[in-house]
Amino acid sequence: MPELPEVETVRRGLERTVVGRLITRAEVGRQRTVRRTSADAVINGLTGATVLAAQRRGKYLLAPLDTGDTLMVHLRMTGQLLLSEPGAGRPPHTHVVMHLAGQEASGHPPAELWFVDPRTFGEVVVFDPEHADVEVPELAGLGLDPLADEWGPTELGTLLRRRTTHLKPLLLDQHVVAGIGNIYADEILHAARLHPDLPGTALRHRDVVRIYDEMQRILNASVRAGGSTLRDAQYVDLMGAGGSYQDDHRVYGRAGERCITCGRGVVRRLVHSGRSTHYCPVCQRPRAPRPGPVRAGRAIRHTAGTSR
Ligand SMILES: [Zn+2]
Fold first, then answer.
1. Which residue among 204, 224, 275, 290 is the active-site one?
2. H helix intervals, the chain
3. Where are the domains of the chain?
4. Which residues are near ligand 1, the ion (C-beta closer than 5 Å)?
5. Each residue of 149-197: pLDDT tens digit?
6. Into which CATH architecture does domain 153-306 fall?
7. From ligand 1's centre to the CA of 288, what distance in Å?
8. Please, what CATH class does the domain formed by 4-139 belong to?
């Protein structure tokens, strides 16, 4: 599933190639992709509109149009935006097509922008920003965006340290921090040397600073690498190219392998409600809850696990 770095890579592609261009015509194939409104609403909303900007909030792509409406695209599990020559053979599961006029000033020939989505969890919506609270209410509920917002460890500490929720689901909660999914939550917690089951209330200020610093470092590095493209090759950029940050993953997808950070631990994979969590039991030692006594059973198991 595309996360912040992948969506940001697509956003940058849109900024380079689609912003400033007129949508002359739009086609909708699959109703499920435009389920929030209707095929007619999307076609009418896009036809004759010029794209003014390419923005991102968390995993949401937002493109204000000169009509006053905004185009929103969410890739969800398997969605892709692909730029192509007019009339090129479309891949299966191409559900929305936007025909873009050529733009002489920037040397862009006419093109088609395809929304391709095999599993159809993704969405294309055209909405009036004045009615955003009704049409896309989830946007107002999004938490801080690690790269788009001006913030620091103090704000992150306020969000995390009052919560008894474990760190992994806390980082995945889009109302807390917007844009992080399974891959980057695992990588950030590993780099910050924090166990995924640690509750937010157990965090010290220096833990929060580490999470903040590693979040910025990892997400920026992944954006520079064009995101992560896993073996399923589901995520590609606007030109159909994969990213390379998967080569820098230290725990995600490495269950059973020796940890490349410490060289001692073996990466473990836990599954909670259908989601997997990868961590190194040596780098990310469990910590006794604070305040309260250390439970002997846990301490003994922990020591045994680290002596291997
Ligand atoms: Zn390790």
1. 275
2. 4-17, 39-46, 132-135, 153-160, 167-172, 182-191, 205-224, 296-306
3. 4-139, 153-306
4. 259, 261-262, 265, 280, 282-283
5. 899 999 999 999 999 999 999 999 999 999 999 999 999 999 999 999 9
6. Orthogonal Bundle (1.10)
7. 19
8. alpha beta
